[in-house]
Write a structure and sequence with these properties.
The complex is a heterodimer. Chain A contains five helices and six strands; from the N terminus they run βαββαβαβαβα. In chain A, helix 2 crosses helix 5 and helix 3 packs across helix 4. The longest helix of chain A has 22 residues. In chain B, 40% of the residues are buried. Chain B is α/β, with parallel strands linked by helices. In chain B, the strands form two sheets. Chain B has a four-stranded parallel beta sheet, with helices on both faces. A two-stranded antiparallel sheet of chain B has the order 5-6. Classes of the chains: A alpha/beta, B alpha/beta. Chains A and B meet through strand 1 of A and strand 2 of B.
Chain lengths: 192, 144
């Protein structure tokens, strides 16, 4: 648990009747068959079919609901991959080094499961230096490796709970990563 | 009574619901444990709850759909052990939901282990010692 304060903007309320009808909703069974919502299926064949249905649903979510944001990536020679609060620090650090003439951009996954793999893969065909910045010791790094493969050099800046790096510290890491010769997976830059 | 008593309890609940004309407006909440299988036997809408959380789920259902009759059907492992907090707080809030408490005084589904509802001096099969006030778990009691 942590303590964070940020301004939020609530979206306008929508008319619930405008949403698609739900054929599973529990309203009382007047005029129809009774419905049950449950996840325990003792029959192995039923459970098997149910799991395949869930996989199909996840595939559809991956296709339709995966979200991400890019910033300053059009001219970027390096892209920082970061989410949440780390992405806000990354944005400030990127703006700091862009003022020095370093073309850095941001790739911010908005959904991390499913991960926006295709979008990041596509970016890595053009941008050959990637910096992963996250408040963990590499949870998202694995997704980035799976997305990028050997198309680009991956530099990693992970930090466990406790200290939150400043934009200036991340900016220094990004400068160093740009100066360094190419290193590949297995030789991550761990700075923590 | 020897064996499983759910069939009798189900029958009594179902007959009451029919007699009161509630079937078509009822939303039932079965728990985790043997009692979860209630959704196979009751002919009204039902939603399974996580272990111990039937009254929390029922609270949500009732507040969203106050026009429905909301019923939970829970064993003691659910209502009086893992879900004690949910039970006490739902009662304290005075939620307008109904609860059927099926108390067999042991964890039946997993083999008869002692529960907080196990009575004193009873000797559950897998446990070598009788349950006494000095043993590792004392039964739930209310203040005198």
């Amino acid at each position: 648990m942590g303590q964070v304060m940020e301004p939020v903007v609530f979206p306008d309320l929508i008319d619930l009747d405008s949403l698609p009808k739900k054929d599973w909703a529990l309203t009382g069974c007047k005029g129809r068959e009774a419905r049950a919502i449950f996840s325990m299926m003792l029959n192995v064949n039923v459970l098997h079919r149910h799991n395949l249905d869930l996989q199909k649903k996840y595939d559809e979510i991956t296709e339709k609901e995966t979200r991400w944001q890019t910033l300053y990536t059009d001219d970027a020679e390096m892209v920082v991959v970061a989410y949440g609060t780390a992405a806000q620090i990354a944005e400030s650090a990127i703006e700091e080094i862009r003022a020095e003439g370093i073309a850095a951009g941001l790739f911010r996954p908005i959904t991390v499961w499913p991960y926006p793999m295709a979008a990041l893969r596509s970016l890595s065909k053009r941008i050959k230096k990637i910096a992963v910045f996250e408040f963990s010791m590499g949870q998202m790094l694995e997704d980035v490796i799976l997305s990028v493969g050997e198309r680009a050099e991956i530099n990693f800046y992970g930090i466990p709970g406790g200290i939150i790096p400043t934009p200036a510290e991340l900016a220094e890491f990004l400068r160093s990563a740009l100066r360094a010769t190419a290193r590949w997976v297995g030789g991550f830059w761990y700075e923590c | 009574m020897p064996g499983c008593g759910h069939s009798v309890a189900h029958r009594l609940v179902a007959e009451c619901i029919d007699e009161m004309g509630l079937r078509e407006v009822t939303i039932g909440v079965p728990p985790v444990g043997c009692a979860v299988l209630a959704y196979n036997y009751f002919n009204f809408d039902m939603i399974e709850a996580p272990h111990g959380r039937a009254l929390a789920v029922a609270t949500g259902v009732k507040r969203v759909r106050p026009e429905n009759f909301v019923l939970s059907y829970q064993g003691d492992g659910d209502l009086a052990a893992i879900g004690t907090a949910e039970t006490i707080h739902a009662a304290n809030r005075g939620e307008e939901i109904s609860t059927i408490f099926i108390n067999n005084a042991i964890y039946g589904m997993t083999g008869g282990q002692m529960a907080p509802t196990t009575v004193l001096a009873r000797k559950p099969p897998p446990h070598p010692a009788a349950v006494t006030p000095s043993s590792m778990v004392g039964p739930l009691t209310s203040p005198a």
